[in-house]
Amino acid sequence: AGDTTIGHNLCCCQAIEALAGLKVALEARIVRTIALELERIANHIGDLGALSGDVAFNPPAAYFGRIRGEFLNLMLTLCGNRFGKSLLRPGGITQAMGEEQRTIICRKLKELRPEIDQVCDLLFSAHTVQGRFENTGTVTRKIAEQLGLVGYAGRASGLEYDVRASFPIELYDQLPANLNLHAHGDVYSRAMVRREEISHSLDLIEALLAMPVEEALPVCGQEHRLEADQFV
Fold it and tell me: What percent of the chain lies above the pLDDT cut of 70?
């Protein structure tokens, strides 16, 4: 999926790193984790916009579409591509995050957070939306377990599994896990899980941007060049 560029490429990089015994520098892991969360936010916001359109509530759909573009632009600021293409490589990343990029992302997050809260309040407070979301398409916890639901769909049905907590890659072992308060299995819960995760992801990115970096970042250095004999 083009909108999961970071997630899919990171899986590939991690598999190669595990096979080759490559160590990834701290700053590279910070950038990787930030990119994952920017991608998560953009996708969740896009989904909320789609849900708004599904119930013919067009103002939030338009607002969410515009805000999603803001987060794609933050990915552009981070690596030069709105979908994060070419940012990741086995052993690290292709380019460092400079102080200017860090400042731009910090300022933009502070600007966007209240906007996200306002449009979410508009969506979730509308009685017409509540009437279409609540008790619609309910998937019970038992059915979710039988279907093997994962991610936010599973969490919306009461499954506590979150790969970031169960298998904490990159820097997730140093970051707080998310708590989903709405888990009744209906459309409303699946929408609210997205809202909760957007807020949580914003917190994570801000924490990552404030992390002190103690390791030098190998961008395209020789120390992580993959040699053929590493795979023999």
Answer: 91
Three-class secondary structure of residue 83 per DSSP: coil
Q: pLDDT by residue (tens digit) across 32-41? A: 999 999 999 9
Which single residue is written with the structure tokens 């306002």? 118
Long-range contacts of 111-117 (CB under 8 A, 24+ apart): 112/67, 112/70, 112/71, 113/202, 115/63, 115/67, 116/45, 116/67, 116/198, 116/199, 116/202
Residues 6+ apart with CB under 8 A from 78: 31, 34, 35, 38, 84, 87, 97, 101, 105
Q: 163, 205, 200, 178: which is closest to 75 by C-alpha? A: 205
Dist CA 172 CA 4 (whole Å): 18
